[in-house]
Amino acid sequence: xxxxxxxxxxxxxxxxxxxxxxxxxxxxxxxxxxxxxxxxxxxxxxxxxxxxxxxxxxxxxxxxxxxxxxxxxxxxxxxxxxxxxxxxxxxxxxxxxxxxxxxxxxxxxxxxxxxxxxxxxxxxxxxxxxxxxxxxxxxxxxxxxxxxxxxxxxxxxxxxxxxxxxxxxxxxxxxxxxxxxx
Length: 182
Fold this sequence. Notes:
By secondary structure, this protein is an alpha/beta fold. The protein contains 6 helices and 7 strands. A 7-stranded mixed sheet has the order 3-2-1-4-5-7-6.
């Protein structure tokens, strides 16, 4: 009986990891030293920032970012087991929220200033479109830090090692056209 329960639990964990691959990206943890460099040299995080980590995994990005005392930290993760681990690891970090949901089908939280992603090529364009739509709506810029994946239709503001930094700003021409059509 105990062996059967153990097999069921192990199967559930493996299934959760495999399903995540189909709907997002596989779990590949970021390196602490590279993150520290990214949050000091590429995009210096400050207490004014709200960081959103897409595919937050075990919470390493949120934990490293917390040293910079941002206003708020938010992690989105599809795998419920990684959400559980991340919540345990980040439980003492103030103003931190880890959500088990698909970022592409969620709104970008109000006040988000920077988004971190270690994603896949097919996710990056969808994410960029979502960010630009949000920026148009709010009128506030959002920075994107992408690890190892770049946008083919946009130049990075800065590059550091395998990191690309992009700044999304409202397109005034589009905003003007939209307001004229109302």
